[in-house]
Amino acid sequence: MNGNGGLRSFSKIMSPQSKAIVYERHGSPDSVTRVVMLPPVEVRENDVCVKMIAAPINPADINQIEGVYPVRPPLPAVGGQEGVGEVYAVGSRVKSLSPGDFVIPSPILSSEKLGTWQTYVVKEEGVWQKIDKMCPIEYAATIAVNPLTALRMLEDFVLLNSGDSVVQNGATSTVGQCIIQLARLRGISSINIIRDRAGSDEAKEKLKALGANKVFLESQLNVKNVKSLLGNLPEPSLGFNCIGGNAASLVLKNLREGGTMVTYGAMSKKPINVSTTSFVFKDLSLRGFWLQRWTSLDKAKECTKMIDYLIGLVRDGTLKYETELIPFEDFSAALDKALGKRGSHPKQVLRF
Ligand SMILES: NC(=O)c1ccc[n+]([C@@H]2O[C@H](COP(=O)([O-])OP(=O)(O)OC[C@H]3O[C@@H](n4cnc5c(N)ncnc54)[C@H](OP(=O)(O)O)[C@@H]3O)[C@@H](O)[C@H]2O)c1
């Protein structure tokens, strides 16, 4: 070991071996992933070796392994794009980080080749963003994608004022839970749509406890006049769709004339059907959001600030979402849950 924690071999700093979830071809993640011991790699002068602490299984990770995500790392690849780790060793020219710091991959610079589902990751200093060690690890591991997406989508499409409302489907998703709370913080009400499934009553109550103003099952919205269900809430001018199919039509149905629906996911893998009425009589607008497009703009400083802001909300109890920490050794059980094979589950977060 050297002073930095890494193993020294012929005066080079080397990382420890890394236990990793690797895929060599695209396909269903439960059939194409396997556990592999990767050999030590050199920690070059500008590199930082990070010992991973926790990493989530996000829908985009699944889509990437399936080969249906627009960004596909060269194969073989290690799964996972997000997570939190502790700096284990640094190269001789690294100035901003030291062993013991907690870091996440910066959403700005983390590449499609990151691979957070492994025990040690070696990447250049600029890939990592130092974060507050007091942030609970399940939040630190998941703060940079879903909460950031919720925050941006509330800010970037329609000017919302206190007293306005938004509508969304997939409200039980991590993004959905964040939208409810970040909207509420701005005095904005949320109308939430969830699918009809076992445990939906409990899911409704949990969303209400987060501050959801209305929560409807999809089947409850099969009425002609949805406005009558809104009580004294104003009709929303902004809607979010992460499901597609009928769930997207229900968002459109709730929007006021001139409203905008932002699509950011496609959990049902079904297309969006838009009625002529939506365009002609309601003049609705359809937009899309992709965090990776947003972060590829010149947003480094803003992004760091937003993540610090979101961590602050977590630390003061203003922002919560459900996660389930699961030991890395139980990856296949966590994957089954993330794939929905065992019903609905909170966000699965691997604990290394
Ligand atoms: N565009 C972007 O930049 C961006 C960024 C972040 C996330 N996303 C997308 O946002 C979506 C949500 O991500 P997340 O990480 O927040 O989700 P998550 O926490 O993993 O939750 C998954 C959500 O999808 C629902 N769901 C799963 N399978 C479904 C199906 N077949 N039909 C209908 N609903 C289904 C679940 O509902 P139940 O609770 O009923 O199981 C739950 O609400 C994903 O599509 C993800 O790729 C996009």
Automatic annotation (TrEMBL):
GO cellular component terms attached to this protein's record: mitochondrion
Keywords: Fatty acid biosynthesis, Fatty acid metabolism, Lipid biosynthesis, Lipid metabolism, Mitochondrion, NADP, Oxidoreductase, Transit peptide
One Pfam family this sequence matches: ADH_zinc_N
Predominant localisation class: mitochondrion
UniProt GO molecular function: enoyl-[acyl-carrier-protein] reductase (NADPH) activity
Coiled coil: none
Reactions catalysed, as given in the entry: a 2,3-saturated acyl-[ACP] + NADP(+) = a (2E)-enoyl-[ACP] + NADPH + H(+)
A single BP term in Gene Ontology: fatty acid biosynthetic process
Localization annotation: Mitochondrion
Source species, domain of life: Eukaryota
Enoyl reductase (ER) domain span: 27-350
EC number: 1.3.1.104
EC category: oxidoreductase
CDD domains membership: ETR
Family the UniProt entry places it in: Belongs to the zinc-containing alcohol dehydrogenase family. Quinone oxidoreductase subfamily.
Protein name, entry field: Enoyl-[acyl-carrier-protein] reductase, mitochondrial
Organism of provenance: Eutrema salsugineum (Saltwater cress)
